[in-house]
Structures are given as C-alpha cells and as structure tokens.
Specification:
The protein has helices at 3-15, 90-93, 95-102, 162-175, 195-203, 214-222, 247-271, and strands at 24-28, 40-46, 64-70, 73-79, 107-116, 126-134, 179-186, 208-210, 226-236. The chain contains 7 helices and 9 strands; from the N terminus they run αββββααββαβαβαβα. Strands 5-8-7-6-9 form a 5-stranded mixed barrel. It is α/β, with parallel strands linked by helices. It starts with a helix and ends with a helix. Helix 4 (162-175) links the parallel strand 6 (126-134) and strand 7. Helix 1 crosses helix 3 and helix 4 (162-175) crosses helix 7. The structure holds hypoxanthine.
C-alpha cells in the first residue's frame, strides 16, 4: 500500500473520533508526556488501535494520542514517540507527523530530552533548538517522493521557525523562565556517546545531543509545517558529566523541570 493510502485510512479513523481538527501538533519526548494530561476535553487514542500506527516500546513513553483543547487552541499531542533505535523504519518514526499534517495541523512543537554539550548549559536547562545536525546517516525522505506530500529536495534553511523561536524567547522573558538556545545533534543511539564523540560534536557546532527529533523535523519541513523545537537538557553529555549516564538521570531531570517546561509550552501555545 502506498504511504498516501495508509495516511488516508489513519486520517479517516481519527476524523471519525473528533469533531474539530487540531491546528497545533505536540510531540512529547522522554518524561515530557505529562503535558498531554493538561489537555481539556481530551479524546485519548492508544497507538495500538490506530490503523497503521507503530507501537511504542521505550520506558517513559505512554504510547497514545490525545486530542483536545490547550489554552484555547485545539491540539493533537503524541504522548511518546517512535525512535529509530527501537527498530522502527524512519517511515514509521515520522508517520505521526504526516498524519498531523493530513488532519489539518499547521505548526508543531517537538520536544525531547538531550545531553548538554555546551559547557555553559546545566542539567534542567530548557534549550530552544536553533538548528540541527543530522548525524544519523539516514534521511526519512529516501525513496520515491510522493509529490502530494512535498517536493523532492525540500529546503532546510529554516528548519526551525525563526518566528516561533522569537515568540518563545518573548514568552520565556515575560514568564521569567530561563531558556538557552543551541544546535541539536541528532544521532541514532541507543548507546550514549563516548567522550571522544562528544568532543567531536562540540567541535562541529553542537550544543546538545539526542536520539530523536531530526527525522520528524525533516518530514515536517517536507510537509510545510512550521516547527518549534525544545530540548530539556537532562544531563551533561559523556566526558563533560563527571559520572556515567543513565536513563534514570534523564527521567529524574525531566521530572524536576517539568513545571517550567509545561508553563513555557502552554504560554507559547497561547500566542501561536
Ligand atoms: N546523549 C544522547 N541522547 C540523550 C542524552 C545524551 O547524553 N541525554 C538524553 N538523551
């Protein structure tokens, strides 16, 4: 079955469950799914009942879509995302982004937990993603291009919307939430990096590193969606951190920062 036919079936299924289409999509990373709990009048649909949706496997990810109202806007949130390291094809990893586009989403906020490389960062910082480095050696657009989705060679010179970045900085200043900005290096994982790899990433201009987001943003831009990216710096990266890295540390830091994260994203949604 062609990708466009699958998307059509998923779209029909979702539209049969809702009466109003969302305009904003939220992709919630490790430990950040809590935002979906604030959605009012929620319609919650587990991934495993949605036609053609893959199943999520990683700890800290719930695996469901929540559609409803947040700060007066109609949103669709993914509580838990699909990662390449789980064994999913990139078509599956990015499938929800295509579905969001199909049901009327115009702007997405992608969030993640990331390791801090920039030495001025601290665990618990919220980083607005200025740009990314695709270090996965993969691209979700490899293969025949379905023109109805987007062009063969999409421009990536403003992968992350400068307008949304400016809005987010204004909101952060107004709400007195500390934010930093930087370049997100997307790797495959699932092993964390070696100290030598982190030194390399630092030299090529990365401020943070993580195992998601890049494929989703490429597909979002291919689809013409406006993107805002926010990383929660959950730990300092290997060799910068004095201790070994664990997923528990990632989850603990995101737990600590979640109130500010929630406040920032919600206030940004108001002005989007
Ligand atoms: N490296 C890669 N991915 C991550 C990290 C890290 O240090 N922390 C959270 N996600």
């Amino acid at each position: 079955m062609k990708l466009s036919e699958k998307i059509q079936q998923t779209k029909e299924y979702l539209l049969s469950k809702i009466d109003q289409c969302p305009s904003i999509g939220l992709v919630l990373g490790s430990g950040l799914g809590i935002l979906a709990e604030e959605i009012e009048n929620p319609i919650t649909i587990p991934y495993d009942v949605i036609p053609h949706f893959p199943a999520s496997t990683v700890a800290g990810h719930k695996g469901q879509i929540v559609i409803g109202d947040l700060k007066g806007k109609r949103v669709i949130a993914m509580q838990g995302r699909f990662h390449y390291y789980e064994g999913h094809a990139l078509e599956a990893v990015t499938y929800p982004i295509r579905v969001m586009k199909a049901i009327g989403v115009k702007q997405i906020i992608v969030t993640n937990a990331a390791g801090g490389i920039n030495s001025t960062f601290k665990p618990g910082d919220l980083m607005i993603i200025q740009d990314h480095l695709n270090l996965t050696s993969q691209n979700p657009l490899v293969g025949p291009n379905e023109e109805e989705f987007g062009e063969r060679f999409p421009d990536m010179s403003e992968a992350y919307s400068q307008k949304l970045i400016a809005l987010t900085k204004e909101v952060a200043a107004k709400e007195k939430i500390k934010v930093v900005e930087g370049v997100y290096a997307g790797v495959i994982g699932p092993s964390y990096e070696t100290p030598a790899e982190i030194k390399f990433l630092d030299r090529i201009g990365a401020d943070a590193v993580g195992m998601s987001t890049v494929p989703e943003v490429i597909v979002a831009r291919h689809s013409g969606l406006e993107v805002l990216g926010i990383s929660c710096i959950s730990n300092m990266a290997a060799g910068i951190s004095e201790h070994s890295l664990t997923h528990d540390e990632v989850m603990e830091t995101t737990e600590k920062i979640k109130a500010e994260f929630l406040q920032l994203v919600k206030e940004v949604i108001v002005v989007m």
